[in-house]
Amino acid sequence: MSEIKIIEVPKWGLSMEEGTLNNWLIEEGDSFKQHQELCDIETSKISNVLEAPFDGVLRRKVAQPGQTLPVGGLLGVVADASVSDAEIDAFIAQRSVAPAPAPEPSPVAATAPAAPAAPAVAAKAPAPAPAAKTSNGWQVPQALLGFSAEPVFATPHATRLAKELGIDLSRVTGNGPTGRISVADIEQTVKDHGGKVATLQPAQRADSPARSRADDSQIVATPLARRLAAKLGVNLNDCRVTGSRGRVSKVDVLEAHAAQNPVAAAPVQAAAQAPEAEVLPMNGMRKAIAARLQESKRTAPHFRLQADLDLEALLALRSEINASAPAVKLSVNDLLIKAVGLALVKVPDVNVQFDEARQAVLRFKDADVSVAVALPGGLITPIVRQANRKSLSSISQEMLDLVTKAKAGTLKPEEFQGGTFSISNLGMLGVSQFDAIINPPQGAILAIGAGEQRVVAHNGQPAVRTQMTVTLSCDHRVIDGALGALFLKELKRLVQTPSLMML
Amino acid sequence: MTDKYDVLVIGGGPGGYVAAIRAAQLGLSTALVEQQHLGGICLNWGCIPTKAMLKGAEVGHTLKHLDTFGFSADNIQFDIAQLVAHSRGVSRKLTGGIAYLLKKNAVKVIDGRGRVSAKGVVTVSSDTGEAQYQARHIILATGARPRPLPGLVADGQKVWSYFDALVPKTVPESLLVIGSGAIGVEFASLYSDLGSQVTLVEVAKQIMPVEDHDVASLVQREFAQRGIRVLTQTKVSAVQGEVGALQCRLTLSDGSEQTVHVAQVLLAAGIQPNTEDMGLEALGVEFDKGFIKTDAWSRTSVAGLYAIGDVAGAPCLAHKASHEGVICVEKLAGVDGVHPLNKSRIPGCTYARPEVASLGLTEAAARSKGHSINVGRFDYQANGKALAMGESTGFVKTIFDSETGELLGAHMVGPHVTEQIQGFGIAQALEATDAELSEVIFAHPTLSEAMHEAVLAARDRALHQ
C-alpha cells in the first residue's frame, strides 16, 4: 500500500496556536510539487500561503475554507492513485476520531480498522467511528489516551478528570500560571484533536427544566424541527409533541428552547433594560493581543522607570540631515530607534528575554527593536533588526517599508516575530506620558510620549526646551531597578548628545 | 496639519486614479489631489473623446462608400456640434465613473492644486484656501501637456492644441497638422474624413517616427490616396495671418522654403511634463530631459516621493501610467511578486484610418540591437474577413529572434488592429515562441487569422500567400 500523507496546519510562530483556512489554491486530484502553494491560512497575525512540504497528489480536502483548526490540524490528505478513496475515508475517520483500542477482535465491530483489511466497510461506515473512550458525553481521541509516569503540573480538578477519562496529561498543554494544566486546557486539547467534550450544564435552576442528553435520533420530528433543534442545541427528548402525526414541530422546539434559556427567551424585556451593545467578534489579531498581554501582565512583575529627555540637540540634528539629504527623511522615532539600539548594546542586560522553560535569561548581542504600529482594530510590532548596526537612513527607510507593509497586511512572519526590546510611541497622538505592557518574552518596553515645549531649569535659568518623557517597563524577574536606570541614563546621553550616534 | 495618509497621489489621470484605487484596495489610507477633472487628459481631452470623434469620421467614411454594399443616400447632413456634444458626453460619463470608483474604494478626493511643500507634506491650494496634508508616500502623477515649438505656441485661435481640436465650432476648410505622432496622425485622419484639406508635417524621416518603417510607409501611402498631403523632414518656421487665412512658412528636406495657405493649424509636436511650481527643485528631485527621474519602482531621488506616468517619462501612454501606478503601489506596500515595468511590452495604438497597433521592437531596432531575426508579414489582401468587410488595406508583421523564437516585436496596420494587438501581448507575457503561436488555432473567418499567418510566414510556412 502506498503511503498516505497529510497536510496539516503549520506552526509559523511561537505564539501560533490555530489557523483559519482561507481558501484552497489547488483542487482535489491535483498533483503538486514541493514548495508549490497549496492554500491560504490566516493566523492571529498574518495571512500566509502554505507551501507543500513534499510532492504528491491532493486526494481530499478535509478542511473547508473558513474552518479554524489547531496547529497540526488536518487540512488535507495526500496519496497517489494507488490508494483507493475508501482507504482515504478510513484514514480520515481514523485520524479525526482514533479507532477503539480494539482489545479483542469483535466480529460485529464495523469500526475503521487498519484500512487495507476492509476498506469497503470502512468507507461505508465512517460515521459512527467510535472514540477511543466515550464517557459522560466525552469522546477522547486515542492520541491523548495513556498515562504518564512523570509528574505533571495540573490542578486537582484536572488531575481527577484526566484520571477518569484516561487522558495522558503530558500530552496536554497547560496555559495556567507556570504551565499548570486546568480543566479548560484538557477540554481545549480534546477538542483540538477532534474529540468531544461534555457540555457543562449551567447550574440547574429550579424553574428551568432539565436538559436531556439521551440520543434523540429516533424521536419523530418534522425536518424543520430537527434542524432547528440542532441549531439551537435543543434535545428533541425535551420537546412536547404537538405536531401532526405525533411529530415534534417547530413550535415545540422553540418552546423547549425558551424554557431552557429563560434569558434568551425574553429578548424584548432584556433589551429594554440592558444598554444597547454591538457585538464585535474578536479577530485573530485582537485575540492574540488579549492573550499575550494578559499573559505578560499576569506573569511578568512590571516595574516602571521614567525619565525626561531634552530633544533640542536631536531635533537640530534631524533638521540638518533632512534639509541637506533629499533621499533621507528622518523622523524623531527613527532617531530614537537608533538610540535605543545603541543603548541596548551598551547595557546588554536589558536586551534580554526570559526563557521560562529553561529558567534562563537569553541575552542578545544585537538589538532587534520591535516598534508598535497601530492598525485599525489592533496593533503589530514590526522589527528593525540590528538597529545598533544600521545607519539612520536605512533605519528610516526600513521603518517606512515596515509601517506601510503593516498597514497593507503584507508583513512576513520574520518581519514581526521575535525582537529583543519594544518601543511604543504615542507622542504623535499628543500623549505626554504613559506606561506600556511588556511584549513577552521580551524583558522591557519603552513608552515614548510627545516632544513638547516645557519650562525647565537649564544652566541654572528657567528656559523653554523641547522635552519628552519616556517610561521604561521592566520585567523584574530578569531586570532590576538599577539596571533599568542604567539603560535610561545611556539612552538619555545618546538622545541629548546625538552626535554620539555617528560613532 | 490636517490629515495623515499612507499614500497621497497628486493627479487624477489614468496613472494617479489607478494608483490610488490600488493603494486603497491594499488597505492603505489614500488621498487623491486633482486640480481640474478626474480622469486626466485621457478621459477628458485625449484617448476617449478622440475615439468618439473618430467614430463620427468612420461613419462619414462609410456613408461615402455606401454604394459598395448596394446602398445609396442623398441629402446627408453633418452637424459638427452634435459630434462634439457626443464626444463631451462620453467624457463626462466616464469622469463621473472615476469619482464613483474612488468613492467606492474610500479614496479621499481633494480638489485643488497639489504642491510638495516638504518631504512627506503636500499643500493643496484651491478657491477655499490652502490646506496641508501629511503622507508617508507621495506619488506624482501630474501628466504632461502639449509642447510648444520655438516661435510657435498653441493660442487656441490660429494655432490649435488637441484641446481646441476636440471642440471645433466648424470644420476648417484646410488644416495644417504639425507633428505626426499618434495625436497628429489621428487628427489628420479625423479632419480629412470630416472634409478638411489636410497637410501633415513631420520633422523626422518618416511619419509616426516610433513605428516600424513598413507600417509608417503604408499609412503615408493611404493618407496620400485620401488626399492628405504628407511632408516629412519638414519644419514649420512661422505661422502668419488671420484665422481662416494663415500663411505657414515651411522648410523642406532639401532646404528650400515653401509657404502653405491654410485655414487652421494644429500643433501636435509632442508633449512636456507638468513639473512646474510643485516644489520639486527645492526638495532635490532629479530630472532627466525635463521628466522626473525615477528608478525601476518609480522612486524619485527624494525619500517617500514617487513619480508615475507621463511626468516620469516616455512612452507617454495611459496604459503605461496605470501599470506603473499599480507597480509603484504594490512595491511600496510590500506585495509579493511585483515586477518592474518592461517597456518592450507596452503596446501602442493609433486610431487613424488605417489603424496602427504595435508592440516591442521595430524591425530596424531589432537589427540594430544585433538580434538575428525572422520576419513574417501577411497582408489583409489575402484575409477573407477583411475582403468581406471591404477593408483589406494593411498587414501584420512579426519579428522573432531566430535562435530562441522569442517574439521581439509585432506591428499591425489595418482594420481593427488595435483590438487585436493584445493577442501578441499575451503571447509575449507568457513567453510563447513562434512554435507555440504556430500551434494556436485561430477561428475562421476572422481578421486575426492574419496574425497567425504572419507567425507562420516568419517560419516560411504561411499557407495563404
UniProtKB/TrEMBL annotation, chain A:
<dbReference type="InterPro" id="IPR011053">
    <property type="entry name" value="Single_hybrid_motif"/>
</dbReference>
<dbReference type="Pfam" id="PF02817">
    <property type="entry name" value="E3_binding"/>
</dbReference>
<dbReference type="GO" id="GO:0006086">
    <property type="term" value="P:pyruvate decarboxylation to acetyl-CoA"/>
</dbReference>
<dbReference type="InterPro" id="IPR023213">
    <property type="entry name" value="CAT-like_dom_sf"/>
</dbReference>
<keyword id="KW-0808">Transferase</keyword>
<dbReference type="InterPro" id="IPR036625">
    <property type="entry name" value="E3-bd_dom_sf"/>
</dbReference>
<feature type="domain" description="Lipoyl-binding">
    <location>
        <begin position="4"/>
        <end position="79"/>
    </location>
</feature>
<dbReference type="InterPro" id="IPR003016">
    <property type="entry name" value="2-oxoA_DH_lipoyl-BS"/>
</dbReference>
<dbReference type="InterPro" id="IPR001078">
    <property type="entry name" value="2-oxoacid_DH_actylTfrase"/>
</dbReference>
<feature type="domain" description="Peripheral subunit-binding (PSBD)">
    <location>
        <begin position="153"/>
        <end position="190"/>
    </location>
</feature>
<feature type="domain" description="Peripheral subunit-binding (PSBD)">
    <location>
        <begin position="220"/>
        <end position="257"/>
    </location>
</feature>
<dbReference type="InterPro" id="IPR000089">
    <property type="entry name" value="Biotin_lipoyl"/>
</dbReference>
<dbReference type="GO" id="GO:0045254">
    <property type="term" value="C:pyruvate dehydrogenase complex"/>
</dbReference>
<dbReference type="Pfam" id="PF00364">
    <property type="entry name" value="Biotin_lipoyl"/>
</dbReference>
<keyword id="KW-0450">Lipoyl</keyword>
<dbReference type="Pfam" id="PF00198">
    <property type="entry name" value="2-oxoacid_dh"/>
</dbReference>
<dbReference type="InterPro" id="IPR045257">
    <property type="entry name" value="E2/Pdx1"/>
</dbReference>
<keyword id="KW-0012">Acyltransferase</keyword>
<dbReference type="InterPro" id="IPR004167">
    <property type="entry name" value="PSBD"/>
</dbReference>
<protein>
    <recommendedName>
        <fullName>Dihydrolipoamide acetyltransferase component of pyruvate dehydrogenase complex</fullName>
        <ecNumber>2.3.1.-</ecNumber>
    </recommendedName>
</protein>
<comment type="similarity">
    <text>Belongs to the 2-oxoacid dehydrogenase family.</text>
</comment>
<dbReference type="GO" id="GO:0016746">
    <property type="term" value="F:acyltransferase activity"/>
</dbReference>
TrEMBL record, chain B:
<comment type="subunit">
    <text>Homodimer.</text>
</comment>
<keyword id="KW-0963">Cytoplasm</keyword>
<feature type="binding site">
    <location>
        <position position="310"/>
    </location>
    <ligand>
        <name>FAD</name>
    </ligand>
</feature>
<feature type="binding site">
    <location>
        <position position="270"/>
    </location>
    <ligand>
        <name>NAD(+)</name>
    </ligand>
</feature>
<dbReference type="GO" id="GO:0006103">
    <property type="term" value="P:2-oxoglutarate metabolic process"/>
</dbReference>
<dbReference type="Pfam" id="PF07992">
    <property type="entry name" value="Pyr_redox_2"/>
</dbReference>
<dbReference type="Pfam" id="PF02852">
    <property type="entry name" value="Pyr_redox_dim"/>
</dbReference>
<dbReference type="InterPro" id="IPR036188">
    <property type="entry name" value="FAD/NAD-bd_sf"/>
</dbReference>
<keyword id="KW-0520">NAD</keyword>
<keyword id="KW-0560">Oxidoreductase</keyword>
<dbReference type="InterPro" id="IPR004099">
    <property type="entry name" value="Pyr_nucl-diS_OxRdtase_dimer"/>
</dbReference>
<feature type="binding site">
    <location>
        <position position="114"/>
    </location>
    <ligand>
        <name>FAD</name>
    </ligand>
</feature>
<dbReference type="InterPro" id="IPR050151">
    <property type="entry name" value="Class-I_Pyr_Nuc-Dis_Oxidored"/>
</dbReference>
<keyword id="KW-1015">Disulfide bond</keyword>
<dbReference type="InterPro" id="IPR023753">
    <property type="entry name" value="FAD/NAD-binding_dom"/>
</dbReference>
<dbReference type="InterPro" id="IPR006258">
    <property type="entry name" value="Lipoamide_DH"/>
</dbReference>
<feature type="domain" description="FAD/NAD(P)-binding">
    <location>
        <begin position="5"/>
        <end position="325"/>
    </location>
</feature>
<feature type="disulfide bond" description="Redox-active">
    <location>
        <begin position="42"/>
        <end position="47"/>
    </location>
</feature>
<dbReference type="InterPro" id="IPR016156">
    <property type="entry name" value="FAD/NAD-linked_Rdtase_dimer_sf"/>
</dbReference>
<keyword id="KW-0547">Nucleotide-binding</keyword>
<dbReference type="GO" id="GO:0050660">
    <property type="term" value="F:flavin adenine dinucleotide binding"/>
</dbReference>
<keyword id="KW-0285">Flavoprotein</keyword>
